[in-house]
Amino acid sequence: MKTNFEALTLKPFNPQKIQARNINFKFSTEIPRHWHDNSLTTTHFINAIGLFLPSFESFMVRVLKSQLGNIKDSKLENQICGFIGQEANHGKAHHKYNQILQNQGYKFETWLKTMDFILAEIMEKRLGSKICLATIAGFEHLTTLLAGIILKVKMLESADSRIRSLWEWHAVEEIEHSSLALILLQETDNSYWLRAVGGLLGAGLVIGFTTLGMLLLVIQEPGFFSCKTLTDLKQLLFTKYKILPYSWKPILEYFKFNFTPCNEDILLLAENLSLSLSQTWVN
Ligand SMILES: [Fe+2]
Ligand SMILES: [Fe+2]
After folding, report:
1. How many whole angstroms separate alpha carbon 141 and alpha carbon 137?
2. Counting C-beta atoms within 10 Å of the first and last residue's C-beta, which end of the chain has fewer, N or C?
3. Residue 87 falls within a domain, yes or no?
4. pTM here?
5. Ligand 2 centroid to residue 36 C-alpha, Å
6. Total domain count for the chain?
């Protein structure tokens, strides 16, 4: 864990100066299959997000790199370079954990190839770079929102400590670079309709990939259809973690004509978390 501490102390939380932190997570097959509160529902909700992140983060890296030559402001260019570095590291860390899931016997190879095909062959080749950038801006709005909810409701407190570290690090960096994709989109093309279409595509991909990935993992569990699965789903979406009540309004706000990201409360939450993570990891 010392590597984690060094990375965070050398590069403190700073949304003005985005920097990649190269963290070497060490996972093993000893991680419990249901590492979140012994619940297959909440475990596979988070695992399903982790399944699509390597594909989506590689897609973001390719699209953002293709835009670097068009950025006129050197400060923004440096921030986007840091953003690219952070997303590349996230993809690698989640790929590493996904291999543990495969070693534990879960099957999802075809699903990973399908997501790569959708992003590389349909989004990039057919829809073009502006729509891809708008989709990334919409996607980043949702990931910031989700990271904020997970931290606010303290969802990771019930997780295995190794997986908790992975997701807390990722949540902190998502919040740190939260508005950058939207800023780049608006610098490139300030059209409301482009942002709105990207918002719909970004939301559609997050919701679709998470729901299908979760279903794919859950049905591989013996006796998955039980009262506990349904009760945990209700707690996840409506009563305990309240993902749906907390997310519908901020999702809709993205489609306002005068939308501007206002993340001050979650920026503070992420900054405090980055400090407490350092304290935890040094001990
Ligand atoms: Fe990320
Ligand atoms: Fe991100």
Report:
1. 6
2. C
3. yes
4. 0.93
5. 23
6. 1
